[in-house]
Amino acid sequence: MASVADKIAAANALRLAGNELFQQNDLHRAARKYHEAILTVKGLDAKGGFASLLGVPGVPALSADYTSAINEMLINCYSNLTVCASKSMRWEKCIQYCDKIIALDKSHTKAHFRRGQAHLRLGFLDRAERDLKVAAANEPNDSAIQRELQLLHERQKEADREQKAFYSDMFQRMKLSNDSQQQPMQTDNSESQ
């Protein structure tokens, strides 16, 4: 059975292979490598790693260094997957990967930024605003975050205009409908004489 250090090294090699494929713009194969790297270390951070999952008694918990290295590997791989998903415009997947990062590191700026970006592309303006504000609070001078916030504000204004137009049109139709029902019927008196 491979040691924890061996598994972390193998995962890192897979991640680096994914990075090479990403540089070649082979997003599908890069994503596959990142997934393989995740699977290589997934579960190792549980108390005692795989041995405890298999019921081997007396296996000590992982050291803080190993736990940190595993979490860093997971965050790096999920972060790379968010970029692959964004470039492929797979916004739902991007959100899922960001959720995994944020579960490991609640203040991860890039994950909040990318999740906010994905929510914005899907039209979930409130969710986008929440994430982008967290990202902006962490990195107030980041120009990409500021551009995305500007785009969000433009979309919010557009949504407000559309909503006002919708309700204005609806009330206008209701008024016309009520006006036509309140007018008395006029009869043609020219034939009755």
Overall body shape: elongated
* Fraction of residues in H or I helices: over 70%
Q: State the separation between the terminal residues, measured CA to CA.
A: 109 Å
What is the radius of gyration computed over CA atoms, rounded to a whole number of angstroms?
28 Å
Low-confidence stretches: none
Count of helix runs: 8
**What sequence of helices (H) and strands (E) makes up the elements?**
HHHHHHHH
Number of strands: 0
Mean pLDDT: 87
What is the domain tally?
Answer: 2
Strand content: under 5%
Main beta-sheet annotation: none
By secondary-structure content and strand pairing, the structural class works out as: mainly alpha
Describe this structure in words.
By secondary structure, the chain is mostly helical. The protein has 2 domains: 1-88, no CATH class; 91-176, Alpha Horseshoe (Serine Threonine Protein Phosphatase 5, Tetratricopeptide repeat), CATH 1.25.40.10. It has 8 helices and no strands. The protein has helices at 4-23, 27-41, 49-53, 64-87, 91-104, 109-122, 125-138, 143-182. Helix 1 runs parallel beside helix 4 (64-87), helix 2 runs antiparallel to helix 4 and helix 4 (64-87) runs parallel beside helix 6. The mean pLDDT is 87.
